[in-house]
């Protein structure tokens, strides 16, 4: 599957909870509805937390989540669509 | 000496507060799925509210989590959070809950954070000496977050460990503190609910690791173990100082399930017989075929003297501990109080019907945990934590219901 085209990228590598979501929330605030934010995280807990956040917030939708490899370590890539 | 942080408790302090039955309230800010898998509790479960931190963030509507908590707590939690007792905040690693606690204090609630969160809680071990004579010592080593029990038997400085759990450093430093030489490490069976510390502990202290050979084949994959082990056999004797530990092969929960009888008095029953229930025989995927074995094995255990002290591999609930804090019971008493054991006294047909009607859900990760315990896969620390999320479900339903 092709990754969605991102309008902005947040590098959340090395950030621990709650930083990936706090920063993503701030970044989404700069986008207009329909635009896509790509978040790259190393915190494995971000997978479930982004799912939970997307299901409770009206301001975004979770488009996809991908686990990739970087230097032998898993990184978690989340694509969020700004809704409102 | 630094003064303890008044706004933060260690997991050991939390355990003490909970076991003492103190009046406190828990706000768990993990996501709903993690919370559903297991919460912090002591001998009794404290009143607990689960609100994921991202829900608080959205509801509070601030960019800053402290501010969001302050707004949300003051406006929406005023009726839900008690006044005048500690509100203990919990998350996965203790970082987010520290921020939430700060926000709660800003809103006027007396909040304390649990350092290290549920990850630290999951690595908390406690020990209790249940035999403490000059020659023989037996410690019950519990991992409260998972309801797992392990044992350390020592006699004249020689020691043997039964069913050690994943954090093997704990056993190494415990043995060092008491001057014990661990010579053997035994698993009662290949565990499905938690990662065994057996092979790693044996390696760390230069001991031999023992497992029944029938359990060295993964029952679902039908693949042989890659770990090295010495095969246990029925009636085998381990000498620990002047004490004798006898192996009983009691198939049922697994095909290679064993129990160990120490000096004819203490039965380390592993996953066969628990205080309030009996083990489930279906985790190998063969409930009907293995139930008759389980039945025969329980009857073999029931033939032991009534004053045998049964020391199980799991606690179904923190409330199962006696007044002395020990999870265990005399066989004679269990024959009356334990429903599964009462059923085992009946016919094989009735026992099978009872078992099949009482099986809890089969946690999907149990297949993978057993793979790890046999060396077929090697999960990293993060994955290990995920596999071991929450409480074990090794017992029949009757005692699993909350």
Which helices and strands appear, and what pairs or packs with what?
The complex is a heterodimer of chains A (84) and B (402).
Chain A: E1 8-12, H1 19-28, E2 36-41, H2 46-56, E3 60-70, E4 73-82
Chain B: E1 8-9, H1 11-19, E2 25-28, H2 32-37, E3 48-50, H3 53-60, H4 65-76, E4 87-90, H5 95-106, E5 111-114, H6 117-122, E6 126-132, E7 136-143, E8 148-155, E9 158-162, H7 168-177, E10 181-186, H8 198-205, E11 208-211, E12 230-231, E13 237-240, E14 243-249, E15 258-262, E16 266-270, H9 287-302, E17 309-312, E18 329-330, H10 331-337, H11 339-344, H12 348-357, H13 365-373, H14 381-387
Parallel strand pairs in B: 1-5, 2-3, 2-4, 4-5, 9-10, 10-11, 11-12, 16-17
Antiparallel strand pairs in B: 6-7, 7-8, 8-9, 13-14, 14-15, 15-16, 17-18
Helix pairs in contact in B: 3-4, 4-5, 7-8, 9-12
Strand content of chain B: 15-25%
What is the CATH homology-level superfamily of chain A? Answer: TusA-like domain
The chain-level mean pLDDT of chain A equals 93
- CATH hierarchy class name of chain A: Alpha Beta
| Biggest sheet descriptor of chain A | 4 strands, mixed
Distance, first to last CA of chain B: 42 Å
The CATH architecture category of the largest domain in chain B equals 4-Layer Sandwich
Strand percentage of chain A lies at 35-45%
Total helical segments of chain A: 2
What oligomeric arrangement do these chains adopt? heterodimer
**Alpha carbon gap, first and last residue of chain A:** 27 Å
CATH C-level class of the largest domain in chain B is Alpha Beta
């Amino acid at each position: 599957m092709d990754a969605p085209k991102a309008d902005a990228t947040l590098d959340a590598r090395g950030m621990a909870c709650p930083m990936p979501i706090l920063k993503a929330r701030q970044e989404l605030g700069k986008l207009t509805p329909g635009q896509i934010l790509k978040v790259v995280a190393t915190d494995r807990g971000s997978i479930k937390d982004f799912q939970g956040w997307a299901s409770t917030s009206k301001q975004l939708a979770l488009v996809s989540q991908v686990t990739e490899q970087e230097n032998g370590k898993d990184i978690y890539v989340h694509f969020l669509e700004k809704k409102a | 000496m630094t003064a303890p942080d008044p706004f933060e408790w260690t997991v050991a302090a939390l355990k003490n507060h909970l076991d003492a039955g103190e009046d406190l309230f828990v706000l768990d800010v993990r996501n709903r799925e993690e919370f559903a898998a297991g919460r912090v509790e002591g001998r009794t479960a404290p009143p607990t509210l689960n609100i994921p931190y991202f829900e608080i963030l959205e509801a509070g509507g601030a960019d800053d989590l402290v501010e969001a908590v302050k707004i949300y707590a003051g406006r929406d939690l005023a009726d839900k959070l008690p006044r005048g007792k500690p509100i203990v905040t919990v998350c996965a690693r203790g970082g987010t809950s520290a921020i939430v606690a700060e926000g709660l204090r800003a809103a006027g609630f007396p909040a304390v954070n649990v350092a290290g969160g549920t990850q630290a809680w999951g690595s908390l071990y406690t020990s209790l000496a249940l035999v403490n004579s000059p020659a023989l010592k037996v410690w019950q080593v519990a991992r409260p977050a998972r309801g797992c029990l392990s044992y350390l038997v020592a006699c004249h400085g020689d020691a043997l460990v039964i069913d050690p759990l994943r954090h093997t450093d704990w056993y190494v430093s415990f043995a060092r503190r008491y001057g014990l030489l661990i010579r053997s490490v035994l698993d009662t069976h290949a565990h499905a609910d938690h990662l065994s510390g057996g092979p790693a502990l044996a390696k760390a202290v230069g001991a031999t690791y023992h497992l029944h050979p029938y359990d060295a084949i993964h029952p679902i994959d039908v693949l042989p173990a890659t770990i090295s082990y010495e095969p246990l056999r029925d009636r085998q004797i381990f000498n620990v100082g002047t004490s004798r530990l006898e192996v009983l092969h009691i198939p049922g929960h697994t095909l290679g399930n064993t129990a160990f009888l120490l000096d004819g008095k203490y039965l380390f029953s592993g996953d066969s017989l628990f205080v309030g229930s009996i083990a489930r025989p279906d985790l190998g995927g063969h409930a009907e075929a293995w139930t008759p074995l389980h039945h025969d094995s329980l009857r073999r255990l029931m033939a032991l003297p009534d004053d045998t002290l049964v020391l199980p591999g799991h606690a179904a609930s923190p409330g199962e501990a006696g007044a002395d804090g020990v999870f265990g019971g005399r066989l004679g008493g269990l024959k009356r109080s334990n429903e599964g054991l009462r059923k085992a006294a009946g016919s094989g047909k009735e026992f099978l019907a009872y078992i099949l009607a009482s099986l809890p859900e089969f946690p999907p990760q149990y297949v993978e945990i057993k793979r790890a315990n046999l060396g077929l896969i090697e999960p990293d620390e993060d994955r290990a934590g995920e596999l071991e999320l929450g409480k074990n479900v090794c017992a029949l339903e009757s005692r699993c219901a909350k």
